[in-house]
Every structure is written in C-alpha cells, then in structure tokens.
Amino acid sequence: MHVLITGIQILLPVLYFCTIWAYARSFFSSLRIAGTLKTPLLICTIVVHALYIVLRTFVFGHPPITSIFEILTLIAFTIALVYGYIEFKTANSSTGYFILILPFFFQVVSSLFIKEASEIPTMLRSNLLGFHVTSALLGYAAITISAVYGFLYLMLYHDIKSSQFGLIYKRLPNLEVLERMSFTATIFGFLLLTVAIIVGLVWLPRVLGVIPYTDPKLFGTVAIWLIYAVGLTAKKVIGWQGKRIIVLSMFGFVIAMFSMTIINMFFSGFHRFY
Amino acid sequence: MNIHCLGISHHTAAIEIREKLWFSLQEIPPLLSSLKEKYMSEAVLISTCNRTELYYVPRENSLNGTPIWKMLAQAKGVGQEVGDQHFYSKSSEEAVAHLFRVSAGIDSMVLGDVQILNQMKEAFTIAQEQRCTGTITNRLFHTAFHVGKRARTETEIGEGAVSISYAATELASKIFEDLSRRTALLIGAGNTGKLTAKHLAGRELGQLLITNRTRSRAEELVALLGGRVVDFDRFPAELPAVDIVISSVEAPNYVLTAKDLHSVMKQRGNRPLFLIDIGVPRNIEPAANRIGNVFLHDIDALNQIVDQNLAHRKEEIPKIERLIGEELTEFSSWVGSLEVTPTIQQLREHFEFIRQEEVGKHLHHFAADKQAEVEMLTKRIVNKLLHTPMVNLKSTEEIPGMEDTRAKLSLLRHLFGLDKKNRS
Known about the structure:
The complex is a heterodimer of chains A (274) and B (424).
Chain A: H1 2-29, H2 32-60, H3 68-90, H4 96-113, H5 127-161, H6 167-171, H7 175-208, H8 216-238, H9 242-267
Helix pairs in contact in A: 1-2, 1-4, 2-3, 3-4, 3-5, 5-7, 5-9, 7-8, 8-9
Chain B: E1 4-9, H1 15-20, H2 28-38, E2 40-47, E3 51-58, H3 65-75, E4 88-91, H4 92-104, H5 115-129, H6 135-154, H7 164-175, E5 183-188, H8 191-202, E6 207-212, H9 215-225, E7 228-231, H10 235-238, E8 244-248, H11 258-267, E9 273-277, E10 294-298, H12 299-315, H13 317-337, H14 340-362, H15 368-394, H16 405-415, H17 418-423
Parallel strand pairs in B: 5-6, 5-8, 6-7, 8-9, 9-10
Antiparallel strand pairs in B: 1-3, 1-4, 2-3
Helix pairs in contact in B: 4-6, 4-13, 6-13, 7-8, 7-12, 14-15
C-alpha cells in the first residue's frame, strides 16, 4: 500500500505536467493532437489524484490536512477539480493552461516534501477540524481561480485597449465571461472562507479555551475577509466594475497566499502543528 | 490527362472586362450545351464576380483555346472588347491543380474565401443537369470539393476577420458575451459602417439605432437593416443605453469628445462601451480611449487586425499546397488506372488469384496424376471467361450512356472491386 502511495506520489506531478503541456500546446500553437488529448489527460489526472487522497486517508488514518505539504496536494486537487467543472459548464477550454499551472506547481512541492509524521496530535483527528480545513481549502482554491481569471481579464483588457491582437486576443474567451467567472469564483471563495472562519472561531474556544487575538494568522485571515467583503459590497452597492474589482480580488489572493504559507510557517502560534 | 481549363480572373483582367463575361445561372445551360455539342465530351462552367472558368474534356486533342473563348465572348455579345490576353489556359495536371487551388480558396481575391466552394457546387450541379459532366469531371469536381473541405478543416486558411466590418464585429464579441442584450448605434451611412451593423445584426444584436444628419437616409437604412431612427440632434441622449457605437460621418470636428464620453460613462455606471470610429477624419476624440472600460478603435486598429489575419492565412498556404499535392497525386493515379492495359492486367490477376485459391483448397481431392489436368482445366475456364470482356473492352464501339472507354473501365473496376485491391 505504501508502495502504491509513493508510486502515485511520483506519478502525479508527471501527469500534471503532461496535462499542462497539452493545454499549452493547444493554446499557443494549436497543435491538433494536444487539443484532443488535453481534457482526457485532465480527467485521468483528477481521478488518479482522488485515488491518492483516498488512499492516504485510509492508510494513515486521517485526511491529509496535518502538514502544509498535505494541504498543498489537497489544494492542487481542488483547483483541478473546480477547473474541470468550469470547463465542462462553459464548454471552453482555452483558459486551462493558466489555471492548471498552479495545481502542477503545488503538487510538485507536495510530492517532493510530503512525509508522514510519526505522531499526529489528537486534535488533528477531530471531524470539526476536518470541516474547518476543508472549507478553508475550497475557499482558497476558489480565490486562486478567481485571481487567475482576474489576471486573464486584465491581460485581455490591456491588449484590446492598446490594439494588440495577438494570441491572447484570439484564444481567450470574451471580457464579460472572464469577469463573470472571476466574480463567481470570488463569491464562492468568500462564502467558504466565512464558513471556515466561523467554524474556527467556534471550535477554537472548545480546544484552547482562549482565543489569542494577537496571533498573526488571525490578523491575516481577518484582513483577507475584509478585503473581499469590501470588494463585494462595492460591486453590489456602488457598482464598481471590471478592472477595479479584479485588481482588488487579485490583491486579496496575494494576501491569502501569504497568510497560508508564510504566516503559517513562521509566525503563527496556534495554527502550527508540526 | 485530357483535362483543360480556360478562364478569365482577377489575375488577368480588370473588373470592367470580367463583368462583361459574367454568366448568370440562367445563361450557363444553353452555352454549356452548345460547347459540348461542338467541341467537348465533358464541360463545367464556373462564373463569379471574380472569375469565369471552363473546365473541359475535349473530343479532339488538338483543340485550342481560341474558338472556345471566342464562343464565350460571342454568347455575351462582347467579341470586340475581349482579347486573347485576358484569358489563361491550362491543361492536364496544371488544370487540376488550379481547380484545387480555387476550391481551397487560395486563388481568390480574398485569401481563404469560403463563398467560392458553394459557387463551384452550384456550377457543377447545373452542368450535371445539362448532362455535360462525365466520368472525369464527376471525379474531378468531387475531389475539388473534398480539397476545399480539407483546406478549411485541416488549416486555418479561413480563420480570422479579413474585412474591417468583420474585424469590428469580432472585436465586439471579444468584449461582450451576449450581443442579443446589447444596443448599437450607427451614426452616418458609410458602406463599412452599414456592413458592420449588418454583421452585428447577423449575430443577433439586441437593438439597432440609426441616426443621420439627413433623416430620410436613416429611414432608408432602417428599412434595409431593421432597428429604429433617432434624430441626429437627439442621439447623445441615447448614448447611456448604447453599448456599441459605429461612427462613419464626414465632419470637420469630433462628433463625440472625451468629455462627452466621460459623462456618458458615469451615467452608464462604467459598463463597457465599444466605439468603432470609421470616419476620416476621425469622428471620436482619441483621448476617450483613456477612460476606463471605453474601447475606442479607429480604422488603423481594425486594419491591423485584418493585416494580421491575412498574414496568418498566407502562412497556411504551404500546408494547402502540400494537401493539393497529395490529392493531385491520387487523382492522377486514378486517371491512369482508367487506361485499358493496367485494368486488364488487374482483372487477370483477380481471376487468377481466385483460381489458385480454389484449386489449392480442393486439389488434394484429386489423384496425383490428375492434378496437372485440373490446373490446365481451370486455367482454360478462366481464359475463356475473360476473353469476351477483353475484346469488348478494347473495341472502340460505343455503348449508349458510356460514351468513352473510361466509363466502361470505371464500371468494370467498380464491379470487380479492383480499386480496393489497388489501394492495399
């Protein structure tokens, strides 16, 4: 079993690489065979990744949420899965390369450094924690996707404004769709993060008794939540459009990444378990 | 190969000459019939605004192009005005390659033209109805249609806008998702502007507003394109509800300034606004492009799109030439197979193969000393069976409905499945 897990651990980055190769060749050079293979490759990768996560959960007795490297593989999976859903729903696969680069990168890092810790603190086996982590992950995945679509929107917007009609102009879907996809992902991300934060605030007192209000992780989290809350309100109430909203959501994404990685690894008190 | 092409196109003659030799769909049938009667066993005439071409199989190999083009000119009563210098003639592989180039769209005035294929199909249907097609032209044109299809599916020869109006429409689709919820305003009545409005309407534009300094002209356009008229001095008030503006008026000053558009955008809540400025001098102040969510494009920008797309289409030409080369080789070998000798050879081989197979299976039923007799007997049967068909095949006697040997050969090959053997 361990051998199988290790095998898939090595296989996954390779599968992701093949998938993004196909999406890239299809987008940048219209290679026909790449266009035919890309979606089947993506489906295959997602299925293998799902298998990997299920195997790890059963063999090690807990969902892979106990270390940053386990979390990275979960995020990679979630982004790939959500993108797969978007591609299916919109019948448009031109943005695949830009989105799938991230799961590839996350999975490579995860596969390189992941290892099973000898002792898992009992609190990490809690179901409520599982729920907290899952909704946080899905939230981060959605925000990431929102940022990528935001980035694509900005690229296309800039190209059209300055009359540059290259590959970006030809292959990407239209501005409205990109903005809508980014915004939809933002809403999902915001709601999921809200759930994660609430669960975190409910659960924490049960375990620790006291909430360390000065912990950097908490600051980071609240900051992110505020950025998105302000952005969404501005859009609904004041009618902020296009560029402004997108830049804000990308800013939120950067802070979120920062919070998830750097703050978590070096500064946080209560969010460290390893 | 006894296939020829004679024609006049935008490569060899100016529009004034070409339009004199344009044949309508009604004029073609009688002309084809008399050409066939006099000179040809098969003929197809294609006539469009950019070319008139005759593809034919002559009865006499020595037929030269002069009496033919003179006949075409006479049919239109323009015998004095057109001359030998306006025509080109090609034969054999060159003629076939030329037809393939035409159907692939690489001989057209606009590279990658899609219309030509349909026009060719129409011309072919007319020739069929007039019973002017035959074995060669049937296969030739079906192959040409196949080339046209391959060109469009295997290369990007037909991709991207190559006219300003189409480029503008494509741009609109890159900004807005659903044109059926959008409103466009056409200011002025220039051709390009009209065409753009027409293309947008073709993409199910939600609403079209038309305005012009002369109200009657606006009303004419509404009758042509649909939509409703807006008075020229009232159109600024409509702007907040408009998503696409097409402006092509002749005016010394800007019809829309950056300041106007600033306030329009405020009223629109900053929703995207696409402005197409086709006027020369420009109708819309260029500084307006600096406003957020305003996309202003003038003729230069649109020409840029067109030039880029044309350049890309040009890059596809080598792929098309390769494709044409492949199809030409296959077509040539098909024509070759219609020669009598290879067909007879293949038929003999086909019969011999069956004879050997059957004899091989059952020879062991016979005593050893009888086996040689069995071989000889079966060979004699096969030869006798083949004798009469061979004689008839080589005879030049005509069978009604199969005027040439080729038709007989084609039928024979089909009946005995010889072409399948050929391919493997």
